[in-house]
Predict the 3D structure of the following.
Amino acid sequence: MNFPNSPSSRLRAPTENIQTLETDVLIIGGGVAGCLAAIGVAEKGAKSVICEKGGIIERSGSIAGGVDHFFAILENGSEWDTPDYLLRHIPKITEGVTDLDVCERFLRGLKGMVTRLEKLGVDFRNPSSPEKPYLRHRSFGLPGEYTIEFEGSNFKQVIGQAARKTGAKTLERVMVSEILMDGDKPKGCVAFHIRHGTIYVVLARSIILATGETNRLTRNASGNPYDSWHIPYNTGDGHAMALEVGAKLANMEFTDATITPKGYSSQGTNGFVGAGAYLINKDGERFMFNYHPAGEQARRTDLINAVISETQAGRSPIYVDCRHLKKEDVERLKITLGIDRPAMTAFLDQKEIDLEKDLLEITISEMSSRGGGVVFRRAGVRIDPECLSNIPGLFAAGDCSTVSQGISGAAVMGHIAGESAAEYALSQPLPEPLTKKELEDIQNSLTRPLKEESEYTPRDFEDEVRKIMTEDVGFRRNETKLEKAIDKLSLLEDKEKSMKADNFHGLMRFHEAKNLRTVAHVVSVSALERRETRGGGAHVRTDFPHRDDENPPYTLVVEKETNSSKLKFDKVPTNLGVDIVEEKKN
């Protein structure tokens, strides 16, 4: 490797190429949660810096290309359309595993968030039926028509521009590699530009993690790890950094997936089932009612569990069937699918699939560490109603935290995190600047993989992680295979330092690969610790095939032992039942 003499500035990190910035709140991630956090920070009179790895904040994050649905409570007069009604059902939906006080904070913020977003320029109106202000439908096991269907191709652009207008300094195509600590409190981060290699040391009085879920964890249907169901840039960066500095993670055993067209990892579950499509097996049987009384309207995790079970029983291929739908409903579905995943309609055209006449063969996507297809529960940094972790000054929001719900959860909780982090920051002194020696050490440590002589690449490392997670963890788990996965992932940690990076884009891949292994390890040990089956297809133990109803539900919390890389667990009772509270009789 010719790093020292390379003519390309992207292969060098000169000593003068370190910038130090100071701010009140550092926001790591410029997706929906990060952008709304910046707005919340500004409204409290504080300043922020946003570090966004993927690109410009107007087109970054999970919905960079658009979104077609938004979960909302509008309190329009219907009995089901209130926070109180839904709160009574959450224990059943989550099987008793969630933080209900955080859920309540989220639900009570939904109506105001819809109004806020509309004022910013998001158009939730229903163009096909002007007499109805919103087109809403029921999906994913919820007891009401909470999903607004809308044309949201410019959603991220609108909120990204709103975040930029707050005056937040945006560092784009910049990856955060490390959270800096001052005792038990965060004081900023180390970051670098993934193209030209400028190193940033951002000093801040509080930090918000808004890095999304963890993708690229297992092999997928297409064989291309970057053809992921959700954005492949979300690689558990926030999870890994939070764990490293002592934050508690929770629900990591609950993994997620979606149904996806065979050979093409894509979103779309919500669009199909929301439109009324059926799932059928090779015999033409509509099988979902064999697994859940709500049929295709069950939770996504129940859909995944059913598709896997049908396949294992020899009743595949599995299909989405839209042939019974009205022509206008199919046309609207095609438009909807093209918003959430623009290439979906092109895929259908290239395969010559007409949803009015043809079946669409489906399979299961790659695994995501996201919370198990259950609304109101996520796998990530455990937060309280203010979005605060157990570390003073470290906040989290969106899909890297334990309570969210897609785009709406990222918006509501992101804004709450921004307000909370700003209030905390304004009560704290500015961090002490780093010494010249500290800056030199940061640079040397960060750029070490650029000087590595081995031929072992981050892709090689990731492929090993995906092989372990696919073959030894997967969607059907047992003690023997999980222990084997843990051993392999522990041995793989020893190979991290041997990975090389050819340039600063490769350095980003280096850190992503490390973070993926960390998350994979936490998922595996958490799955071993929860000795029951719970959450539909989110956590299935073949050696413990039933839910443990003899003991009360608990949240499995994991953190690093002090001064050790070992993990320790705490089973925190949720004090929730799993049945719906009986509705009041009139």
User: Anything to note?
Assistant: Residues 1-15 have pLDDT under 50 and may be disordered.
